[in-house]
Each structure stands twice: as C-alpha cells, then as structure tokens.
Specification:
This protein is of the alpha/beta class. It has helices spanning 18-27, 50-59, 74-83, 98-107, 154-166, 184-190, 199-202, 207-215, and strands spanning 5-8, 32-38, 63-69, 87-91, 111-116, 134-138, 172-176, 194-197. The protein has a single domain (5-215), classed as Aldolase class I (TIM Barrel). It contains 8 helices and 8 strands, in the order βαβαβαβαββαβαβαα. Helix 2 (50-59) runs parallel beside helix 3 and helix 5 packs parallel to helix 6.
Length: 217
C-alpha cells in the first residue's frame, strides 16, 4: 500500500478565489489537489473547465488530481492534459472505450484513473486494474459536496485492496465523499491510501493537524 495521502478538494474551496484555496492546501502540507470536473449532465452540477485548471497550474505546484464527472470523458482528456493536470480519472459508468481513453491519458504523459459510483458493482472496473494508476471509489453520489459518508461502500474498497494485493498491482486506492476524521480510518482499514476531503478540510480549525491526522503523520 502507498503512503497515506490527504487530497483537499477545491469543490469546497472559495470559488471566487481558487488560487487562495490552493495556497491554503499547500500551506497545510498537502501535495495533491483534487479538481471535481462536473458537466451538469453526468452529475447535476457544473464546476470547473480546462481554463480554470490552466489558471491554477500557473499559481500552484501541487499535483492536480483531476476527476472527470462528464458524459463524454474522451473529449476532455486532451484539454485537461494541456491545462496541466497531472492525473486524469474518468468514471466507468459513461459508455466509452475505457481502455483507449486510459491509454490516451498515458500517451499524453499523465497518470490515469478509473472511478465508480456507490451503486456501481466493483466488478465493473476489474478488467482495467492493470491499466490504471488510481481507482477512486465514491462514498457519496457525486454532484455536490458536504454529503454524508456511505458505510455500505466500504466492502468495495476491501475487494479492490484484495485484488491489488493478490495481483501484485500498485494503483492508488482513493476515496471521495464525506471523508473526515471519523470516516477516514474506516476507509484506511478497508485498504484506501488516498483520501479526498473537501468540506472537512477547508472547515478545519487547523488544516495542517487535519492532514496529519488523516495521513497518520
């Protein structure tokens, strides 16, 4: 398992000053920053486009973990790669050639990932585990921040962690949705090593202490 990593989500940051929110994440010792890309179709919300990612790239050196919540992920891979994203993940649910899109992300010199929603069987991503750098398991239905953590998703993390171990794979196992000081240990015990936290991180009185608690530092 990779070293635990706290990844602040800009979805819960100040949308009028995202650069300041990125700076707050860096000041707390975070190394990654999570960008939730929503299209208003795959999920009922709109967030950031490639232009915002490019602007952030000019203002931060943090690793940009870009999560595409869009109906047509293949159309967004190149724009976000050119904008400076370091890792681009797409959902398993939209109809597309997932293997080809994952290969395209790699060909652009970026890390790649697959994401599954709470209601999607974990078997849906199994054929692609040898092709990815990261698997993200949603512990809320994506679309809005601040939702309650779904404990029923933990067995998916356990299954993915077991497959990773049995097959000698090295992908990061990320969790996103309702992650805080109470739920992160549950996810870690189930095998997660990468923890996206938005609301809990940005509302923390001491963000550095929050990160250290999540990472076990």
């Amino acid at each position: 398992m990779a070293a635990p990593l706290l990844v602040p989500s800009l979805l819960a940051g100040d949308h009028a000053d995202l650069a300041a929110s990125a700076a707050q994440a860096a000041a707390a010792g975070a190394r990654w920053l999570h960008l939730d890309i929503m299209d208003g179709h795959f999920v009922p919300n709109l967030t950031f486009g490639p232009g915002v990612a490019a602007a952030l790239r000019r203002r931060t050196t943090l690793f940009l973990d870009t999560h595409l919540m869009v109906d047509n992920p293949a159309d967004f891979v190149e724009p976000f790669a050119q904008a400076g994203s370091d890792l681009i993940s797409l959902h398993i649910e939209p109809a597309c050639d997932h293997a080809a899109v994952l290969a395209r992300i790699r060909a652009l010199g970026k890390q790649n990932g697959l994401v599954l929603n709470p209601g999607t069987p974990v078997a849906a991503v199994e054929p692609f585990l040898g092709l990815v750098d990261l698997v993200l398991v949603m512990t809320v239905q994506p679309g809005f921040g601040g939702q309650a953590f779904r404990v029923d998703v933990l067995p998916k993390l356990e299954t993915l962690a077991r497959w990773r171990r049995e097959r000698g794979l090295a992908f990061r196992l990320e969790v996103d949705g309702g992650v805080d000081l109470q739920t992160a240990p549950l996810c870690r015990a189930a095998g997660a090593d990468t923890f996206v936290a938005g609301t809990a991180f940005f509302r923390a009185t001491d963000r550095t202490a929050f990160r250290q608690a999540i990472e076990g530092a």
